[in-house]
Structures are given as C-alpha cells and as structure tokens.
Prior knowledge:
Blueprint: E1 2-6, H1 18-26, E2 30-32, E3 43-44, E4 49-51, H2 52-62, E5 69-74, E6 78-79, E7 88-91, E8 96-100, H3 111-130, H4 149-155, H5 161-172
Parallel strand pairs: 1-2, 1-5, 4-6, 5-8
Antiparallel strand pairs: 3-4, 7-8
Helix pairs in contact: 1-3, 3-4
One zinc ion is lined by residues 125, 129, 135, 145.
Amino acid sequence: xxxxxxxxxxxxxxxxxxxxxxxETFAAEVVIAPAVPLPAAAYDGRRRQHNxxxxxxxxxxxxxxxxxxxxxxxxxxxFVPELNFVFGEGDPNRGVAVFSLHRLRAEGNGAGELxxxxxxTEAVHELGHSxxxxxxxxxxxxxxxxxxxxxxxxxxxxxxxxxAAELRRLMARP
Length: 174
Ligand SMILES: [Zn+2]
Ligand SMILES: [Zn+2]
C-alpha cells in the first residue's frame, strides 16, 4: 500500500487525481493519508525555499508500518543545498518521497490537464527513487532528471522498459 499525504496546507482533494495513475503505475493500493505539517525548520529565509530533505525527515516519522511507501505532496518551493531548486526528492532507505505542486502550474487551455500530468510525472519519479531507481538517460523515461517543466512535459509519467522491469524486481523484494 502506498500512502499519499498532503504536506502543509495542500487540500486532500488536490491529491485525488494522482491516485488512479499511481495505482496503475505501481500496481498497488493507494490511499490518502492524514496531512503532515510543513516543518518550520525546513524553511531557509535567505533562499525563501523549503529544504526537501527536512520534509522527508518529517514524512519518515509519519510513515506507518502498513504503508510500503509514503509520498508527501507539498505546495512550496523546494531545494537541496547543491541545487537552485528541486521538483521533489525520494529516499529509498526510509521509503519516503516528496514533491511540490509549486512549480507545476500551467496557463492557458488545458491547464488543468497539463498540471495533473506534471503532478503525476513528479509523483512517479520521486516514488521511483523511493524504490531505489536511479536517473535514466532515456529522455522519454519518467526517471530522466528533469531540470525544467519542458523536460517534465516531454518525458511524462511512464517508465522506459528497463526501469519498468527494475521497478517490478525491486517491488517484489521482501
Ligand atoms: Zn530524480
Ligand atoms: Zn528509464
């Protein structure tokens, strides 16, 4: 079972479009978990961003034994110290992942659909990391390291055949 939790003020209803995609992609039961508070300690006032690793710490503490993975969905700008920003982060050792809706909003026609596809893409990418998948050099694979929305839109939420096979192997491990 994969649990998906709002982090901070994200409404739980914003998470529902993700559930069918995650169910299909990971062939797992997917549930919405209680919201996790946005940790004040994650905020860097100089960068005006939240440290995604600190969010993972909070998610690791909130993870329940019945949850194979816990994915947090935030709506703040995230960073890790060595990068300007990140869309999210996943941790295979603790079985948690996080991504943010903050940089995914689109304007114009079909904005809702595009936004949902971007959210699904980032959710699958970070959950992929949480199962132990590394980055991919296939630009059409969801595990491609995306540095911009253009790259996120190009790759989409699907795994390349090699990563799909590796994910099945990793998920089958006891
Ligand atoms: Zn990545
Ligand atoms: Zn791949």
